[in-house]
Automatic annotation (TrEMBL):
GO terms for molecular function: 2 iron, 2 sulfur cluster binding; metal ion binding; monooxygenase activity; oxidoreductase activity, acting on paired donors, with incorporation or reduction of molecular oxygen. It comes from Sulfobacillus benefaciens. Signal peptide: none annotated. InterPro entries: Rieske_2Fe-2S (IPR017941), Rieske_2Fe-2S_sf (IPR036922). It comes from the Bacteria. Keywords: 2Fe-2S, Iron, Iron-sulfur, Metal-binding. Residues 4-100 form the Rieske domain. The keyword Iron-sulfur applies. It holds the Pfam family Rieske. This is (2Fe-2S)-binding protein.
Amino acid sequence: MAQWVRVASVDELKQQNPLLVVLDDEDIALYRVKDQYFATDDLCSHAEASLSEGDLKGFLIHCPRHGGQFDVRTGEARHFPAYTPIRTFPVKAEGNEIFIEIEQD
């Protein structure tokens, strides 16, 4: 069953500065591009590096380990050596709060 879970306030998430959030032992990277919000798995599908520690340039998150790139809107791998997409999560902002939709048992 899907459920919306509060993960941060709008003030906590700065432009182009990813934020790591942990939900039920699951690491999720949260992004703000202009006034749009996105969330993906935090681990790079190539080298298991933390994407929340990478550089966000526009809609592309750059893996800090080998430079693979992913589109935070779709999870699509956009630059070698990454070729496997990462999971994305629906995100919404209500007032000053940011929520991610996740599946829960």
